[in-house]
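Hi! If you just cloned this repository, the fastest way to understand the data is to look at a raw example. We've pasted two of them here, unedited. The first protein comes first, obviously.
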Amino acid sequence: MNSETKQFKAKWSSFTSISTVVVSALVFIFLPYVILSAVPNVYWLVLTVYLLIPALMITLIFYAPFGYRISKDAITVKRLGVDIIIPIDNIKEIRRYNCNRITGPGLRIFGVCGFFGAYGKFWNKEFGSFNTYITNNKDAVFISCKNGKKYVLSPQQPDEFVQNISHNHNFSA
């Protein structure tokens, strides 16, 4: 691979878009209304909800994938928080992955599925335990590393993403 980097967007699926809007609306509009209707004159509770839940939502945004970058040495999952670095010389397999639309990447161990994408630790029969940083199930790419770590990513152009890495390195695609 040449020394330039290649950027890939993390395009949201309609599910990710709708989930993010619905969760935000529920938290900021519906939840305070329900609390005030159920227990009048508890403005302190509404204020607490308005402070704590948005703080949690903002924290989650820092873990969501916003793009991917391929350099000569690594794949980087771009996030608002600390980026995830996958060294290319540690990759033993990269391929497209048919991520189930209904169940998503697998059983969620510790993560989010819907609000700004699916990210965190997941498990399924095919891979066992793996980390997911996706925004669109249709664009899923599976990466297995020599150190045993496994990842599912969703770059906007998944075939080009896989080809860009596999054609320039010696591992299966």
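Ok, and the second one:
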Amino acid sequence: MLPIGKNIGGIIMLKIFKSFGGYIEINHAEKNCWINVLQPSATEIVRLHEEFNVPHEIIQDILDVDERPRVEFDDDWSLVIFRIPVSNLNNGVPFFTVPLGIFMNEKITVTLCSIENEVLPFNQPSIYREKFKTRMM
């Protein structure tokens, strides 16, 4: 098994969560977990393919900034790619859009995006996460 993601400036770029009324980060993938990936490294792309069975062409499509929204179904998986707004304060345009992919099979759900965004905040994937962690303690 490959290590749990890459650490860039203290931020892990591949995180695995399990739902218990909210989302709690876990160390290893298990059935019905959610794997949230942001700006994947080459190692993480290999891991997505080899460990989680996400086809290479799907990963590349999601990471292509010009990819069009679509829905695909295969015998073993489903895919939704849509475009989400990302803040842009550099050139007077308030936002631009990038692809966000949701890959699902009977064991896992993977979300993948090439850029940090507010649709799936990387450090706080659920508004219920902190509330749930407090109840657990």
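That's it. A detail worth noticing about the second one: The beta strands are 7-8, 11-12, 14-19, 23-26, 33-38, 70-73, 77-87, 95-105, 108-113.
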